[in-house]
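[Discussion] Sanity-checking designs against the backbone

I'm trying to build intuition for which residues belong where. Below is a C-alpha cell string of 465 positions. I'd appreciate it if someone posts a full sequence so I can compare it with mine line by line.
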C-alpha cells in the first residue's frame, strides 16, 4: 500500500490543515474537496493496521485538484527556478571559454588563462576544429562575426587580429594599440569591428580595408570608456548600426553616431560602475548592468529610465535581450543568471550555478561571460570559463505535470522541496515509496524535469529513467 495513501492522523491533519491552506473556488472543486475530506476523516478513525486507498477512491480530477492545492509554493518554485540545466556540454579541461558562435556550434577557448592561442571547439563533441595562433601576448577578448565566417581576437600585445573560420589564411592584424585590447565586437552587418583598449580608446574599423574609421578618445570627446578587463563588452552596436553605446568611468553611458562620431545622448549618471551594456532588437532601448548587481532599462531617444531590475548578490557580468525584446537575460559574476520581463521589470526565471563549486561568491573564474538564446527561443545558453550549459525557459513540462499530477507525486514534491530549502537533496532509493511515486509519472521528460528542478538524488536506479 502506498505510503501516501495510508494516511496517518498527525501527518494528514498537519498537511491538510496546518501546512497548506487549501482554497477552492469552483463548484466542482468544492465537491472534490468535500469528498476527499470525508474519506480522509474516515481514515483517521480506522485502526493503525487499517488504511484507505484515497487514490483508488477519488476521481482523477479530484486527485489533481487536491495535489495542485497541496503544493502552490513548490509549483511556483519549479516555474521560476532552474537548478540543473537541460544539458551540460563537454566539461572543459583547464582553460577558458571566451565566446559562442551565433549558430551555437562553436566556442572560442583559451587553453590556459594567459594563453596567446585560441581553439575553436565544437560544443557538441568537444573536438577542436581550428587553432588560432599569432598573438604575442595573452588574448583578452574574442568575438564571432554574425555569419560565423570570421573571428576577431584582442590581446595584451596591443593588437586585434581577424581570422577566417575554417581556413589557414594568415589573419589580418589591425594597427597596434598602445595598450592591451580588452574588448572586441562585430557590427550587425559583420563589416565593421570595434576594439576597446585600456588607454581609454575605442576604435571603429572597416574589416575589408583594414582602415580606422573613427576613434572615440577621452581627450577628444571628454568621454572616458570604462577600463574593464572582464570579457563582457562595454560597447554595443544598435541593430541598424547607426548608433553605438559606450560605458564610461564617470558612471554614464553615451550613445554615438557611428558615421560622424557625434555624441547623441547621455544617460543619467549611475551610482555604481557599469559592467555590461546591450541594445534591444528594436534599437529603441538599452540595458546597462552594474557592479552592485542591478541593471536598468533606458530609452535611446529620450534617455529616460524605464525600469530598474532588482539587485543580485553578485555584480552583473553580461546582459542580452531576447529576440523579441520582451525579456532580458542577465548573467552575474557568481555564475547565476536571471531572466527578466522588460515591460514590468518582473523576475521571470533564475538559473542557479552549481552549488557544489567552491570558488566563492563573485569569483570571476566561474562568472557568466556569455548569455544567448537558442534558435528555438525555448532555452538559453550560459557560459562560464569552464562550462557550457543549456537551460529550459519554457513552461511546457510543468504544464504537462500539472495535467496529470497525483497526490502521491505531490507529497514527493513536498518532501523534495523541504529538503532543498534546508540545503540538502532528497535521496531516492530504488524500490521505495518515493521512487514508485516518481516512476508513476509516465512522461519521461516530465520525470526528468522534476529530477532536475528539485535536484533529486537517485540511488540504485535502473537504467532507463
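Best answer:
Here's mine. Compare freely.
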Amino acid at each position: 500500500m502506498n505510503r501516501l495513501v495510508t494516511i496517518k492522523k498527525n501527518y494528514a491533519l498537519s498537511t491538510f490543515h496546518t501546512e497548506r491552506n487549501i482554497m477552492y473556488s469552483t463548484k466542482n472543486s468544492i465537491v472534490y474537496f468535500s469528498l476527499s475530506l470525508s474519506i480522509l476523516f474516515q481514515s483517521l478513525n480506522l485502526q493503525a493496521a487499517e488504511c484507505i486507498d484515497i487514490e483508488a477512491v477519488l476521481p482523477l480530477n479530484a486527485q489533481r485538484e487536491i495535489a495542485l492545492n497541496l503544493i502552490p509554493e513548490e509549483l511556483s518554485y519549479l516555474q521560476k527556478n532552474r537548478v540543473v540545466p537541460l544539458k551540460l556540454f563537454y566539461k572543459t579541461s583547464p582553460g577558458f571559454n571566451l565566446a559562442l558562435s551565433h549558430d551555437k556550434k562553436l566556442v572560442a577557448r583559451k587553453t590556459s588563462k594567459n594563453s596567446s592561442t585560441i581553439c575553436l571547439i565544437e560544443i557538441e563533441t568537444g573536438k577542436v576544429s581550428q587553432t588560432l595562433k599569432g598573438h604575442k601576448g595573452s588574448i583578452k577578448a574574442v568575438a564571432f562575426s554574425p555569419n560565423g565566417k570570421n573571428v576577431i581576437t584582442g590581446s595584451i600585445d596591443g593588437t586585434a587580429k581577424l581570422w577566417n573560420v575554417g581556413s589557414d589564411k594568415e589573419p589580418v592584424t589591425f594597427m597596434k594599440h598602445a595598450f592591451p585590447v580588452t574588448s572586441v565586437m562585430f557590427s550587425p552587418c559583420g563589416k565593421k569591428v570595434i576594439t576597446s583598449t585600456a588607454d581609454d580608446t575605442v576604435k571603429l574599423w572597416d574589416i575589408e580595408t583594414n582602415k580606422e574609421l573613427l576613434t572615440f578618445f577621452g581627450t577628444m570627446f571628454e568621454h572616458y570608456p570604462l577600463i574593464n578587463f572582464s570579457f563582457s563588452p562595454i560597447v554595443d552596436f544598435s541593430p541598424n548600426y547607426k548608433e553605438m553605446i559606450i560605458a564610461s568611468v564617470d558612471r554614464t553611458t553615451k550613445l554615438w553616431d557611428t558615421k560622424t562620431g557625434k555624441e547623441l545622448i547621455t544617460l543619467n549618471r549611475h551610482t555604481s560602475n557599469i559592467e555590461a551594456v546591450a541594445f534591444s532588437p528594436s534599437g529603441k532601448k538599452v540595458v546597462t548592468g552594474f557592479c552592485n548587481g542591478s541593471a536598468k532599462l533606458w530609452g535611446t531617444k529620450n534617455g529616460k529610465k524605464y525600469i530598474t531590475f532588482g539587485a543580485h548578490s553578485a555584480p552583473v557580468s553580461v546582459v542580452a535581450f531576447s529576440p523579441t525584446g520582451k525579456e532580458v537575460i542577465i548573467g552575474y559574476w557568481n555564475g547565476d543568471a536571471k531572466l527578466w520581463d522588460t515591460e514590468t521589470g518582473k523576475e521571470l526565471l533564475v538559473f542557479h550555478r552549481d552549488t557544489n563549486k567552491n570558488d566563492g561568491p563573485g569569483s570571476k573564474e566561474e562568472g557568466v561571460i556569455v548569455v544567448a538564446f537558442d534558435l528555438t527561443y525555448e532555452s538559453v545558453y550560459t557560459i562560464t570559463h569552464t562550462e557550457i550549459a543549456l537551460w529550459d525557459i519554457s513552461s511546457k513540462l510543468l504544464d504537462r505535470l500539472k495535467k496529470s499530477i497525483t497526490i502521491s507525486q505531490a507529497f514527493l514534491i513536498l518532501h523534495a522541496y523541504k529538503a532543498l530549502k534546508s540545503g540538502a537533496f532528497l535521496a531516492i532509493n530504488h524500490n521505495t515509496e518515493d521512487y514508485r511515486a516518481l516512476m508513476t509519472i509516465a512522461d519521461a521528460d516530465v520525470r526528468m524535469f522534476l529530477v532536475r528542478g528539485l535536484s533529486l538524488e537517485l540511488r540504485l536506479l535502473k537504467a532507463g529513467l
